Amino acid sequence: MKIVKASEWKPRESNKQDNRAILSTVQSIIAQVREKKDEALFSYTKELDGAILDTLLVTEDEKTKAWQQVDTTFIEALQKAADRIRMFHEKERRGSWWNMENDGSILGQIIRPLDRVGIYVPGGRAAYPSSVLMNAIPAIVAGVEDIVMVTPPDKNGSIPATTLVAAKIAGIDQIYKVGGAQAIAALAYGTESIIQVDKIVGPGNQYVALAKQLVYGQVDIDSIAGPSEVVVIADNNANPAYVAADLLAQAEHDPDAAAILLTSSKQLAERVAGEVEKQLANLERVEIATESLESNGAIVLTEGIKEAVELSNQIAPEHLELMVENPWELLGLIRHAGAVFLGSMSAETVGDYMAGPSHVLPTSGTARFSSALSVDTFIKKTSLISYSKTALQQDAKHIITLAEQEGLGAHAASIRIRMEDEA
Ligand SMILES: NC(=O)c1ccc[n+]([C@@H]2O[C@H](COP(=O)([O-])OP(=O)(O)OC[C@H]3O[C@@H](n4cnc5c(N)ncnc54)[C@H](O)[C@@H]3O)[C@@H](O)[C@H]2O)c1
Ligand SMILES: N[C@H](CO)Cc1c[nH]c[nH+]1
Ligand SMILES: [Zn+2]
């Protein structure tokens, strides 16, 4: 991995999401799916996933067979993860509220789950059963009743057994074999097989992330949860082997993933670079990780810890690890990150699988304004206003003044008519 001085390094501005070629591909996929519906889904699945399908819905038989193909240790681990995710997200649940004011009026908020959501589970370069749980459980805790899951099939037209088992554990029934931008378009506009949803959530590669951006407005989306990213801020106390392992853990996801170390210790920088070389050689996904590190990886030498924090705030990474002597002291300075991991035992991988908070997090700098997927992702709030006579009498003249100032006479009249009745 290259070691560069902070003064000579610039964080990438976006995850190539504005790459024109990808944009035009995704726009054309969305247009085709809108026009040709299922026919376009079958055609793109053949072209992009190499699978010839005659139906998109996963059958009960496929789900049953999946249970026979996975071992009990995997089921046990998934169940443990599901319990942790549920426990964490139960804490986020909040109900409607209203207050009676002194003048007898009632003001509040009605909180309701969304009716129907689509969850995208990535499946191109790897199966992601963990992402099934991380998407679906917060939705179920929020009370969403209709959840549609989409995920790409392999070239034999199958969904990995591990993904189907995770769906069963999470409580998801409707699963469709379709991935990429075409799956997002199907959820946004509906096809003969796939019903239109109100919101699409879930992580994916650049095609998926960009398609979500383009259908926003037709439906809601959670965030831009694109190719994975990690920033590690480390000092001389950090274990270089741990730091290297955590950089590689994100780099192996995708050639577009990003892994960055920010440190003021030249010694640590050199040790981590050495460790990365050593550990990289033993990785199964060595090619993906190498490409990712070459295009988006860096070890950045800062003047001090403060500069490291400033750079990290500029990047607004999906994951931020604080591998420093006193991580809690640094936490107050962190303004933007999807999730923060404190101390040497909090490997980012813990958050990927088991800690409890959803691993679906904003990427490409969008942690500046977006949050982790949570129960809040699946609710909407309706304001509740019940005015009393006393309240209207007290406020009438101010409302009329504001309405007239805006030149909206009918607004003013709707208050006057009530006041005249009063007389
Ligand atoms: N941010 C998060 O919360 C989070 C969580 C988990 C995973 N991830 C990320 O999800 C991503 C998973 O990516 P993946 O590729 O393995 O699976 P994926 O399911 O996201 O994408 C696979 C699909 O991409 C489409 N595609 C691939 N090449 C294409 C092309 N040339 N033209 C048009 N469409 C094309 C195909 O339709 C294919 O089915 C990784 O980047 C990983 O880092 C992010
Ligand atoms: N690191 C990914 C989020 O960016 C999530 C994941 C799933 N499986 C392994 N990791
Ligand atoms: Zn990961």
Automatic annotation (TrEMBL):
Q: How is the cofactor bound?
A: Binds 1 zinc ion per subunit.
Any idea which GO molecular function terms this record carries?
histidinol dehydrogenase activity; NAD binding; zinc ion binding
Q: Name the InterPro entries on file.
A: Ald_DH/histidinol_DH, Histidinol_DH_CS, Histidinol_DH_monofunct, Hstdl_DH
Coiled coil ranges: 266-296
Q: Which SUPFAM superfamilies does the record cross-reference, listed alphabetically? A: ALDH-like
Extract one GO BP annotation from the record. L-histidine biosynthetic process
Q: How is this protein annotated for GO cellular component?
A: cytosol
Q: Which residues bind NAD(+)?
A: Y120, Q182, N205
Role according to the record: Catalyzes the sequential NAD-dependent oxidations of L-histidinol to L-histidinaldehyde and then to L-histidine.
Classification via HAMAP family: HisD
Task: Return the protein name.
Answer: Histidinol dehydrogenase
Q: Whose protein is this, by species?
A: Shimazuella alba
